[in-house]
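Minutes, project check-in

Agenda point 3 was the complex the collaborators sent over. CS summarized: two entities, 851 residues total, and the question is how they sit relative to each other. Sequences were read into the notes so everyone works from the same version.
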Amino acid sequence: MDFINHQLFIKDINVHIDPILPKKTAIITHGHADHARFGHDHVIATRQTIDIMKIRYGDKCAKKFTPLRYGQKYSIKNYDFTLYPAGHILGSAQVLIEKNNHRLVITGDYKVGKDETCKNFKLVKCDTLITEATFGLPIFQHPDPKDEIQKLIRSVKINKNNCHIVGAYALGKAQRVMNLLRQQKYNETIYIHGSLEKLCQYYSKEKINIGKFEKVSSKDKNFYEGKIIIAPPSALKDRWSRRFPNPIICMASGWMTVKQRAKQQGIELPLVISDHSDWNELLDTIKKSKAKNILITHGQEDALVYYCKKQNLVSKPLSIQGRSDEEIE
Amino acid sequence: MKKFSSLLHNLILTPSRNTKIKLLQDYFNKLDINRAYALAILTDQLSFQFIKASKLRELVYEQVDQHLFDYSYDYVGDLAETISLIWPTKKEGKTQNLSTLIENIKNIKKSEINTEFSKILSELSNNERWTLIKICTGGLRIGVSERLVKTALADLYNKSVNEIEEIWHGLEFPYENLFQWLKNEISKPKIDFKKLFHPMMLANPIDEEKDFKRLDANEFQAEYKWDGIRVQLMVSSKSVSLYSRRGDNISSAFPEIIEATKGDAVIDGELLVGRNFEPSSFNDLQQRLNRKKASKDLQNKFPVFIRAYDILFYKGKDLRKFSLLERRKYLEKFQKENKTNQIDLSSIINFSTWKELTKYKNNFHDDLNEGVMIKLKNSEYLPGRKKGYWYKWKKNPKLVDAILMYAQRGHGKRSSYYSDYTFGVWKENELVPIGKAYSGYTDKELLVLDKFIRNNTTNKFGPVREVKKEIILEVAFDDVFPSTRHKSGVAMRFPRIHRIRWDKPINEVLSIKEFKKEFKID
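CS then shared the predicted structure for the full assembly.
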C-alpha cells in the first residue's frame, strides 16, 4: 500500500487519481468538479465520465482519453487498474489497483442505495480501502428517497399558487431528483435552470428516465405557479430566483438531515436525498470489503477513524488538498 | 404530537413572519386540549422537573458510544437535534396526543425516568423526538417569540394583542378563560392587577446619527443605566414580592428586600449590590444571582438594594396611563412615605442639548453604570419595547487588541461555523488567553474567520482547534475583573469581536502586565 501517497499519487508510474492540478496521467472517478479537472495529458475513466468532462470543459480538456468499461483491466507496468460502479452519479467508478497480490480500492464518492440514474454500487473485496466519509457521523441515516420526493409532490399539490424551486447539483443530483419524481408518477414538465440543460440532455440520451423538461424562460410570471423548477444551489440565493411567483425554496441534499443547516441556508422544504453513503452504509462497506487497512478521505473522518480503530482496523485520515470538509456533494 | 412537531419543524424553517402566523393560526384553530399544551410550550411555560440537558446526555450515552455522540454534537451544534438524529430508531409506536404524552411524562416516577423516558424516545419519529427534547430543555429557539404567538391568537379572534398582553401573567394553564374570551363566550377574564407581574417597559438602543437629529432634547429626561438586574417590586399590606424582568418570582432569593419594604405600590427598578446605596461591581452582584435562597452570611457580605426608576400602581391606582413626569411625583411620594435602607431613587439628569448628555454618558461613575437611559417626559408606561419612547445609550465599550488562539464551532444558527473564539495577549514569549467571544462580527467576517481557521489549524483538542497565531481581533468589552479561575488572572464581562485588525502585527499586542495596568486590575 505504500506505493500510493496521501495525494493519491503513484510515483512509480506517474499516475494520479482525481488530481486537482493538471498531470500527465489522471484516473478520474467521476465528473464532479472537485474530482474531474481540465488540462491533464491523459485521462482514464469510464466512457460517461469522459463524455461529461467534454460537455463541461470542451472536447480538448485533455490531450488523450482512454475510456474503460466497468470490470475491464488496464495495466501500466506491474500495476493493474479496474473500474467498478460506485453508484454515485452516471459514470462514477471505484478504482481497484492491484500490485503484487495487494488489492487497493479507492471508492471515490459512492452510495450503496438504489439509483436508476446510474449503475449500482458493486462491493469489491480488498486489502486496503480508501473510502470517502462525507457523511461519516452516526447522525446521518438517510431516509428512503421515495418518501422525501413524496414530500415535494405533496407540497406542490397543497400550495397551488407557489412554485417550488429545488436546489440540486447540476450533475447527478438534479437528474436523480427528476428521475425520482418520474418514479413517483409525477408526469408534468419539469423546468430547469439553463446551466442544467446540456447535462439533462446527455442523461436523456443515455436513456435515463428524467421525463420531459424545459429550460426556464422569461414567461409570464404566473406561468410557473404550481410548477417544479430545478436549479443549482448557487442560483437559489441569486436574483434569478426572484422572478418566480411565491417560490418555496427546497433543497435536495444529504446535509438537509440537520434542520439547523437547512435553516442557515434559508431552505423551507429540505429533502434528504443524498448521493453519498450514510453512516451505516460506510460501516457496512468497510466491514464487507474485508480490508484490514482503512484510509479515510474528505468529510467527517474523525468519527470513522475512531470507529475503525475500535474494530481493530488500521485506520487514519487522509487529507487531500483542495477538498475542504463540507462544500462537496 | 405528529401535528405539533411538524408545526415546530415548519416554524423553524419558515423565514416569513406572516407564514409563521398563519401556521400558528391553522394549529390553534383546532378545538382541542392540545392547544393549551402547545400554548404553554410555545411561550416557555412548561418544563419537566427531572429531565434536563444533563439527564438527556446520560440517557443518550446509554444508547450510543460517547465519543461518537460527542463528534456528532460538535458537528450539529444543537443538543436536541443531535440526540433525535442519533437515537437508535426502533419501530415507531402508535402516535400519541401531545397532551397524553406530556401527562404520561409528568407521571413518571423519578426512579423510573431512565427506562421509561428512553422507551418513549425510542417510539417516536425523529421529528417528534426533536420536539420532545426541545420541550424538555426549554427555550425552543425556533424563531417564534412569545409576542408572535400572542399576535397570531389575537388576529385569529379579532382581538388586540395588547389586550392579551395585559392579562397574560394572570392566566394559568390550561388557559380556558383565555380561549373562551377569545371566542367571545365570556367577557375578558378579570385579573387582580395589583398582585400580578406587569410586563415591563423596555428601551431601544439609540441611533446616534439619526435619532439625535430627529428628537428634541427638551422633550426628554435622562437617568443613568445601572448595571444590575431589572426587577418589579409589588408591595401591599398583605404581601411583598419581587419579580425578574421575565416575570419569575425571585422573592426568596432577596429576603432583606421583602422584609424591609412597606407601603402599597408596584415599583420598577434595578436590583444592585452595595452598602449605603453605593453600588459595587456586577461581579459582586453575581454572587447573589441564580440562587434560590440567600444565607445571612451572604446577605451581610453582599447586601442588595433597589434603585427605583418608575411606579406603575400607587395605593391601587393604575398609573400606567399617566405621563412619566406625573409618575415620578408618585414615586417620590411613595419613597418619602416608606423610607427604608433597601430602596432609593434613580436620579434625574438634567440637560438641554444632546451634546451635553454625552459627558454624562461616558464619564460618570466609570464602572458602575452602562450609560444613560433617555425617556420621553410624557411617555405612558407601555409594555414591551415600543419605539419612540425610551432609548438606551450605552457608553463606549473598552477595547483591546488580542490574538486569536483557539476556535470552536458555534451553536444554534451558527452551528457548523467556527464562531466561538478564544483570544489572548502576551506573557513573556507565550500567549495567555484572556477571554472568549462569539458575537459582534459581521456575517462576512465570520466567513473569513471560519475559512482561516479551517486552513490554519495547528492542533485539535476534541472540538477545539488551535490556530496559527496571526489574526488580531479588536475585542470590545463592558468591563474586566480580577479572577482566580483563569490562568491570565482576569475575566471579561460581555466580550465581543469589534473588528479584525488586519493592519497590526502580532508583536504589537499588549502583554498581560500592560493589559492589567491599562484597565486597572489588581
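Noted in discussion: The interface with chain B takes residues 137-141, 257-264, 266-270, 300, 302-303, 306-307, 310, 324-326 of chain A (CB under 8 Å).
Follow-up: revisit at the next meeting once the mutant set is ready.
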